[in-house]
From TrEMBL:
SUPFAM superfamilies: S-adenosyl-L-methionine-dependent methyltransferases (SSF53335). It comes from the Bacteria. This is Methyltransferase. The lineage of its organism: Bacteria, Bacillati, Actinomycetota, Actinomycetes, Micrococcales. Gene3D superfamilies: Vaccinia Virus protein VP39 (3.40.50.150).
Length: 278
């Protein structure tokens, strides 16, 4: 990835068509990380999608988790990916066709306005979407609206207050992280999930967590470069600090002394079978 490329965004409204391939590369790379796979497997087992049910993945991206849901739902079930970005939807549809999954479809929509009737969905999953939303509580309320009585939801999101980056000057790392926090509408999403689900009237059943630890190769990868470049663009660090930050991280990785992580939380909840008291 060339340093001169346009900074990569994970927000659907800021993803340029030319960036879809790069974004898919990063998402695919992250999907292979053992930590992501462990938390996703935990969430899928906890949701227990059953044959014949209707399951929705909000912010479905490349569609990988829609396919995972489909495998549990059988031929009479339906797995639906809700994705606002047309380029990612096209890619997901292509991959679903290659996988020959007949009970999968992808629809345009966003977390604030899910294209489903009230109480019409059995299972909802949503991963690393709320951190990009200005009003995450509205999205959680939408999930509560579409869930059937007894329906299950698992929301997975990062808490960037838990981020660790080593080795580098702690003051420079702190400045870079604070710059990133300022760019994210909801950077501490992970710690807020329990309260948001409860406020929406859902019953929280469990909370899981997993530190997403990046491999040594991440020191040369797009995420570290993006973090440093954006901190420089924001004026949080200067040119010399930018150069030194990248040098320290890459030198650390070359010596086997590199750590980059953030903790993701997964909140499992269900819709009560009893109507709320007015």
């Amino acid at each position: 990835m060339a340093d001169s490329e346009q900074p990569l965004s994970f927000r659907a409204d800021r993803i340029e068509p030319s960036q879809v391939e790069r974004l898919a590369f990063v998402l695919d790379m992250q999907a292979q990380l053992p930590d992501v796979r462990r938390l996703r497997a935990w969430a899928l087992d906890a949701l227990s999608p059953a044959e014949g049910e209707r399951a929705v993945d909000v912010g479905s991206g490349t569609g990988s988790e829609v396919l995972a849901l489909a495998a549990r739902l059988g031929p009479t079930g339906e797995a639906i990916g809700v994705e606002p970005n047309a380029g990612l939807r096209d890619l997901a549809e292509q991959r679903a066709a290659e996988a020959a999954e007949p009970n999968v479809r992808f629809v345009e929509g966003d977390a604030y306005a899910l294209p489903f009737e009230d109480a019409s969905v059995d299972v909802v999953r949503c991963e690393r979407v709320l951190q990009h939303l200005e009003a995450p509580e509205r999205a959680v309320a939408e999930v509560a609206r579409v869930l059937k009585p007894g329906g299950r939801v698992c929301i997975i999101d990062s808490d960037w207050g838990t981020a660790i980056l080593h080795p580098a000057d702690p003051a420079v790392v702190r400045a870079a992280m604070e710059s990133m926090h300022a760019r994210l509408p909801n950077p501490f999403s992970g710690r807020l999930l329990r309260g948001q689900l409860s406020t929406a009237g859902l019953v929280v059943d469990d909370i899981g967590s997993q530190a997403l630890v990046q491999p040594l190769t991440a020191a040369e990868g797009p995420l570290v470069q993006m973090l440093a470049d954006r901190a420089l663009a924001d004026g949080a660090i200067d040119e010399d600090q930018h150069t030194q930050l990248l040098h320290d991280l890459r030198a650390g990785a070359a010596a086997g002394d590199f750590h980059m992580s953030v903790t993701m939380f997964a909140a499992l909840a269900h819709q009560s079978t009893h109507p709320p008291v007015e």
